[in-house]
Amino acid sequence: MKLLVLGLGYSAGFFARAALAKGWEVTGTVRSAEKATRLSREGIHMLVFDGLAVSSFLAAAIAEADAVLVSVQPGENGDPVLERLSRELVAAPSLRWIGYLSTIGVYGDHGGAWIDETTAPKHSFRSQMRLSIERDWLALGERSGKAVQIFRLSGIYGPGRNPLVKLRQGTATRLIKPGQVFNRIHVDDITGVLMASLERPRHGAIYNVTDDEPAPPQDVVSFAAALAGLEPPPEMAFDLAKLSPMAASFYGENKRVSNALVKRELGYSFRYPTYREALPALLAEGD
């Protein structure tokens, strides 16, 4: 199996390493030569793709790929992968699976109600571009006959990026906004869902990749603090907090996101169905 990962960041990196462990040949792209050199030491064939120039090496990697994961953040004008690499992807003779990593943010605010993949997104400025990009990826799948899957991720955490780390760094907060909940997802389960999808590709599939328990964010921080024997940060009323516009926009969206389709269609069993299973494991592993 030859896997190409376009945009080898935090989540995609865990997927790439899992693929390597299976004996797959993995190629990844990053924006800088320095990062490419560092990741190549892990056995990943690394290429530089800055969203503009397409090297002959990248074109060859697409032509040879059996599967492509796209984890490149949108630019001001949309998706640089669609803009620069669509022709090569459509023409790739062996390519049978394309995965695009999106976000549950496309749904907007639903007042804390449960939603699933059939729920109509409530458009916000932040979600409009993502939804447009999702539609363009699905259209590429339709015209090329290749199975394109959209994976809408909730709040990502895992080794080195979790409430335990923030508590030790003194950056954890407990903002109290009554009724506010968030879903989250461990990187190992992102990898697990992607692997399950590779075994059962479906043209035009959209999956919510999220945990079982949408929870108030302050509860997760309190649980992590008790687990690690650390003092939790003081509670702060949301309306008194000084948040960046981006952080404030997250708190403006309140929903409970179902993962039932992933379980039903892909037969996937979550390794960490909630933060209650994941945080003890992260603590045991050194956070």
CATH architecture: 3-Layer(aba) Sandwich
Please give the largest β-sheet.
7 strands, parallel
**Element pattern in H and E:** EHEHEHEHEEHEEHEEHEHEHEHH
Number of strands: 13
What topology, given as strand order, has the largest sheet? 3-2-1-4-5-7-11
User: CATH topology, anyone?
Assistant: Rossmann fold
Shape call? globular
Average pLDDT for all residues: 95
- Through-space gap between termini: 32 Å
- Low-pLDDT segments, ≥5 res: none
Q: Find the structural class using helix and strand composition.
A: alpha/beta
What count of helical segments does DSSP give? Answer: 11
Helical content (DSSP H or I, runs of 4+): 40-55%
The CATH C-level name is: Alpha Beta
CATH superfamily: NAD(P)-binding Rossmann-like Domain
The percent range for strand residues is 15-25%
Q: Give the radius of gyration.
A: 19 Å
What is the number of domains? 1
